[in-house]
Each structure stands twice: as structure tokens, then as C-alpha cells.
Amino acid sequence: MFLLLGVSVIVFGVIRLAPGDPVMVVAGLDALPETVEAIRKEWGFDLPVYMQYFRWLGRAVRLDFGQSLMTREKVSEMIVARLPATIKLNLVAYALALAVSIPMGIYAALRQYSLLDHLGTVVALVGVSMPGFWLGLILILYFALYLGWFPVFGIGTWKHYVLPSVALGASQAAGLMRMTRSSVLEAMNQDYIRTARAKGLAERIVVFKHMLKNASLPIVTIMGMRLAYLLSGSFIIETIFAWPGIGRLAINCLYSRDYFVVQGTVLLTAVVIVFANLIVDVTYCFLDPRIRYQ
Amino acid sequence: MAVSTRQTTNGEAKPVLREASWGQIIWRRFRKHRLAVTGLIVITVLYALAIFAPWVAPYDPTDIAPDRRLEKPSSAHPMGLDEVGRDVLSRVIWGARISMTIGFVAAGISLVVGVFLGAVAGYYGGGVDNAIMRVVDVLMSIPTFLLIIAIVAVVGPSITNVMIVIGLTYWSSYARVVRGTVLSLRSIDFVEAARAAGNSSLRIILKHVLPNCFAPVIVMATLNVAGSILLETSLSFLGFGVQPPDPSWGNILTTGRQYMRHAPHIALFPGLAISITVLAFNLLGDGLRDALDPRLNV
């Protein structure tokens, strides 16, 4: 709770206290002084900043983020209209990342120094180092413009999902794979694994019940963190692929200095991340009974 | 020297004859990490290119040749020409100057702020500690990328602003690590002894406590430079970072994006430069981590 309050102060403060008068955005640069004053009153910009903050916060907890300075649309409606697209894209990308990275990481650890392990390690390193937006451009260049297999941008059929979700998920997959590999390797060298083997358990049981269960804790942590990265990444990927989600909305509104929309989207994303971390913490208790007893 | 050259063939270190210093041990372990050494070499070359850009770049990065716009790569222009006929190679080299400076300075700011606040939090504890760590928690749960864009968008995009904003957002992980180490060392004998001997708090922190955080901090800093470069290029790509005509890898990519269909080389090469640089820093970071402390996980 405190966390969210802190987040809201930063989100509000950063965007509101900065130079640049939001009234001018509404009124236009050549507006008459009287018009400017009237607008200032109407939007509540004449109040002291802390009052503006509390007013904004009071509404925000009721999911009312104010109106767009440009179109006067309600921010909450603008977000709701674009949220499904973002959720779908992120889910596909996240599922893709998990489906590739976790099995690959486990395999690489179990067959350490095998050809596939080396290959995976190199690919993961390159994946972590490549900026997602550049990968997106390369994908567009090759698969959309050159081969013509997938559409360049937009939303519609499943084909529209392929390129953006790969561009978005690649670096997350790479990071997750590296983490999975090292956690499994770490768990592999523990005494209890040797014990399990020594008492003659089937290799399958050793791997699944003893090794993977113990390796899952750091993996889950990283999974939570990666979700946050994923969301941040989708702001830029949505922009490249003209994806009609909240990421593109936020970036576009930043260009036009539409403050309330930006505040709303950033706050919403922060809330999602806080909750993702909360879920991670709760998952810990299921995975590791020791934490529950503390 | 003679001893250390013989050890590489079978990968196992021979017993060292004379006492080696900590730095030598680390260097020896680091050298065996071939990829990390490659990373270090690449970084050195890139910084050399960046520093000597005016002499290395074959053309002036702002010289235009409107009649030869979007020209494909050739032997005279290995990376081709851009939308107003500027040499892309020269722009990428000059871009290295800006992008790498930003990466380095931003990571430096994060390091100084994070280490300082972490040390203060860990050493004094209580309310100070609580306040600092809550800020860390908040910073860690904000989508920082968007926050950075928002700040840069309002304070105005310039090289200095980008460096400061990135630097001031990413100190939280340093603060966490340093605080943890300081906390665990605060009441350990050698620190108590230093205090009993009448040393000031500042001196104790600087001379006795902080050196113990060296390993994780240096690894984090290396990876942080990579992260900052990525961030700067993303910012510039979206138009919130370095402004044209100053070349940055990010803003060259932006123009490249508009000419993807007819002149893909404009977008290809700066992206390649980013990837290679970030990869080099990641390799170096991995190598340093293994050399400094194999069990370290940052």
C-alpha cells in the first residue's frame, strides 16, 4: 500500500512539476489571457500542486484518471479501449518466452557443456544484448518486407501477433533462460541431490522432485521481474508495430504532452508490477514451506 | 610471468610459486575466460574509436550529399549513405562517442548515488535506513523506462539530461547490495576495532566497509553501462534522447526505420553497433563475476 502511494507521488510529481504549462496544451499557444485563465480554473490547475495531487489521487483510486487534455476523452475509457490489445500481446510474448526459455534452460543445465548448451548460451547472450526495437525492425525487414509472410504492422489475425511478440519476448526469453540454467546448475550441486541419487531414486524423480523444485524459487522471482520488463518493452514494440495498445497510447500522448493520459498509464503499469511481485511472494509460500512458517 | 603462461593449456592452474596479490589472482582467473577477454578488447576498441572519432571517421558526419541520398554500401562508404547523403559509418563512429559517453556517465552516476545511499542506510540504520529503502522499493516497482521517457520529455531531451535521468533512476540495485554488505559488517570485529581506534564514520565506511562490496558493485557497474546504453538508444529511437543532427545510435535507427524498404542499411548498422557493444559489456560482466566471486549472483 505504501509502495503504491510512493509510486503515485513520483508519477504525479515527475509529470506535473516539470516545466511546461499543461494549460497551454489545451488552450494553444496564441490563446487570449482570459481564455487561459478560464481553462486553468476549469481543469483545477489554479490550485496548489499538493491539492491537485490529492484531487488526482482521490479520483485515481476510483479508477478515474481525469480527461485527455487534447480530446477531452476520459482517460479511463481510453485505457480500457486499448488494454485488451496490450494484454493479448504481452500474454502471447510472455507465454512464448516461458515456453522456450524454461525447457531450454533446464536442458542446458542437465547437459552442461553439450553442443546445445553452448548454442543456447550464445543465443541467450546475443538475445539479452540486442535491443528489442532493433530486433523488431530486422524482423519486419526480413519476414514482412522481404519474404512477405507476416504483416508489417497493425492488429487482426494471428499473423499480426507473430513478429511483435517475438520481438517483445526474445530478450525476456534470453534472460529467463540464463537464469533457469544457473539456478538448476546451482541446485544440481547440492548435497541432497547426491543423497537422492545415492539412495537409488530414479533419475526422473531426482530431477523433477529434488532438483527442479528447489531451482524454481529464483526462477519464479525472475519471472515476476521479467513481467515488468516485458511491460516496459511493450511501450516501444507497440510503437514500432503500430499496435493499438496502451504502450503506443502513452508514447503518443508523451509527444503531445497529454499529461493525464501518461499519468494514468504509468500508474496502471506500476500497479500491475506491484501486484505481479505480490503474486511472486505468495508463490514462494507454496514452493518453500520454510517461508510460510516464518 | 613465466609461471602463468604455462598454465593455460590444460585449463588448470599450476601451483603458484610466489605469493600472488588479490589483483593478480583475479586477473589470472579473468584471463582464462576467453569470451570476457574478447569483451574487454571490443570495449577498448570501441572506446578508442569513440575518443578518436574525429581522426578515425572517414568523413564528416554532418556533410551532406543530396544527390547521393540512400546510396547502398560500397567500398567508399562501407555502411552506405543516409537520407540526406551523410556517411553512415562516420555517423556510427561519432554516435559511439555520444552513446558510450552517456552509458558510462549514467552508470557512474548510478554507482556513486547508489553506493553512497546504500552505505548510509546500512551504516546508520533506523529511520534513515527505512526512508532510503522505501524509496528503493518504490523505484523498483515503477516501470522505469516509461518514467525516464516521461522525465526526459518534460525536462527537455538533451545529452546531459539523458545521462542525469538514467543515472538517477538506476541506483537502487547498488543501494540494496551495498546496504546488505554494510549491515552484515557493521558489528564485525575489524569495524569495531577501527571505531575503537577513534576513526570517523566516514573513514570507517570508506576504508573498512566499502572495499568489501567491490566485487558485486564492479560487476553491476559493467552490466549497468550496457543497460544505460540500451536505454539511451531506446530513448533516442523514440525521439526523447539525443536530438539530430547530433548522431546517436538510437536516432540513426529512427531515420533508418523510415527508409526500411529502400535503404535497410541505415537501420542495420547502428543496431549492430548497439548489439555488439552491449554484448561486449555483458561478456565482460559475466567474466568479472566469475573471476571475482563465482558464487556472486547479480
Could you give a short description of this structure?
The complex is a heterodimer of chains A (294) and B (298). Chain A is an all-alpha fold.
Task: Write up this protein.
The complex is a heterodimer of chains A (294) and B (298). Chain A is 79% helix and 0% strand. With 294 residues, chain A is mainly α. Chain B is mainly α and 298 residues long. The N terminus of chain B is likely disordered. At the A-B interface, helix 1, helix 6, helix 7, helix 10 and helix 11 of A face helix 6, helix 7, helix 12, helix 13 and helix 14 of B.
The number of helical runs of chain B is 14
**Span between termini of chain B:** 32 Å
Which consecutive residue ranges of chain A, at least 5 long each, have pLDDT under 50? none
Query: Which structural category fits the helices and strands of chain B?
Result: mainly alpha
Global morphology of chain A: flat
Total strand segments of chain B: 0
Range of strand content of chain A: under 5%
Largest sheet of chain A: none
Strand content of the residues of chain B, in percent?
under 5%
Record the SSE blueprint.
The complex is a heterodimer of chains A (294) and B (298).
Chain A: H1 2-17, H2 22-27, H3 33-43, H4 49-60, H5 75-110, H6 115-129, H7 132-146, H8 159-188, H9 191-198, H10 203-240, H11 246-255, H12 259-287, H13 289-293
Helix pairs in contact in A: 1-12, 5-6, 5-8, 5-10, 5-12, 6-8, 7-8, 7-10, 8-10, 9-10, 10-11, 10-12, 11-12
Chain B: H1 2-6, H2 22-31, H3 34-51, H4 53-56, H5 88-124, H6 126-141, H7 144-155, H8 159-169, H9 172-185, H10 189-196, H11 201-209, H12 214-238, H13 249-258, H14 265-292
Helix pairs in contact in B: 2-14, 3-5, 3-14, 5-6, 5-8, 5-9, 5-12, 5-14, 6-9, 7-8, 8-12, 10-11, 12-13, 12-14, 13-14
